[in-house]
Design a protein that fits this description.
Layout lengths: L1 H11 L10 E2 L2 E6 L2 E5 L1 H10 L29 H14 L7 H8 L7 H16 L4 E5 L6 E7 L11 E8 L2 E9 L7 H24 L10 E2 L3 H8 L18
Parallel strand pairs: 5-8
Antiparallel strand pairs: 1-2, 2-3, 3-4, 5-6, 6-7
């Protein structure tokens, strides 16, 4: 079928077949018998050279776990163009590096008026990828096509707005196919509410994935949702509990 498709395309259009996919828009693809490995090692090296961080000291985590990134008005402003360029490069790198998604999105919130503390936080992410340039996503070859969804949230993680951050990832079998990290639109008044809103966000994502799978003839739509909040789970399962959660905006009851 692949050969017939190639002959059909070359007969209609001026084109040539270049063989097995190895690189596409900065994504390097390594196809093996037992799976596919996607990474951006070459892009990482070019990026570190571009911002002159080839010889920086590597660190073990993209962001400190004990201290949050805070904006100090006394800090000096930094070059906005440079800062936005670094954020834009990191956002593209999250195509194969979900482990830097949260840290990058936190730093991206300060693009309008970046300060020295924000630049230090961004450089910490670059120091992390310097120490682990070949990390990527592994897609093992298997026949498991069941969807599963993981949801989590912090509580008032943003010190400026006191908004929480929703996080989620979706798996097709053992393969990670989608991931998110986004600041919530409303201020949550409890950890239960923050977890509930995050679960709603994940639900919308894997409903979209289910519709995509229908095009391939996959009709098994039972998708488990994994979350670590018993109270949120009770609200989802028991509609009677909705009477005690009127402080949650009506739109979140889409779940």
């Amino acid at each position: 079928m692949c050969e017939e498709f190639r002959e059909l395309m070359t007969s209609e259009f001026e084109m040539s077949a270049v063989g097995e996919l190895q690189c596409f828009l900065g994504l390097q693809v390594k196809q093996l018998q037992n799976g596919i490995f996607i990474h951006q090692c070459k892009y990482v090296k070019e990026l570190l050279t571009k911002i002159d961080m080839n010889y920086c000291k590597p660190c073990n985590t993209p962001m400190a776990t004990t201290k949050q990134v805070t904006v100090d008005d006394k800090d000096d402003l930094v070059d906005q163009t440079l800062y936005r360029s670094m954020i834009r490069s990191l956002l593209y790198l999250t195509s194969s590096r979900p482990n830097i998604k949260f840290a990058t999105c936190v730093c991206a919130r300060s693009q309008s008026a970046p300060r020295k503390s924000n630049l230090i936080a961004v450089k910490s992410i670059f120091r992390y990828i310097k120490g682990a340039p070949i990390l990527g996503i592994w897609y093992p070859a298997n026949r498991n096509i069941e969807l599963s969804d993981y949801s989590d949230s912090d509580f008032t993680g943003c010190h400026t707005t006191r908004k929480s951050t929703s996080g989620g990832c979706q798996f097709l079998g053992n393969c990670l196919v989608s991931w998110q990290s986004k600041k919530q639109a409303t201020v949550s008044t409890s950890t239960v509410e923050a977890e509930y809103i995050a679960a709603t966000s994940c639900i919308t994502q894997f409903l979209w994935l289910q519709n995509q799978l229908l095009d391939f003839g996959v009709t098994s739509l039972k998708t488990p949702l994994m979350l670590d909040s018993q109270a949120s789970e009770n609200i989802i399962k028991n509609p009677v509990s909705h009477s005690t959660t009127k402080h949650i905006d009506i739109k979140h009851h889409f779940l």
